[in-house]
Amino acid sequence: MRTLILTFAALAAPAAAQVTPGQWKITAAVTEAEMPGVPAMVMGMIKKPRTITQCVTPEQAKQGPQEMMKRDKSCRFTRYSMTGGKLDAEMVCTQPGGGTLTAVSRGTYTADSFQSVADMVGTGAHPMKMTVATSGKLAGECK
Question: What residue range is the signal peptide (predicted)?
Answer without folding.
Answer: 1-17
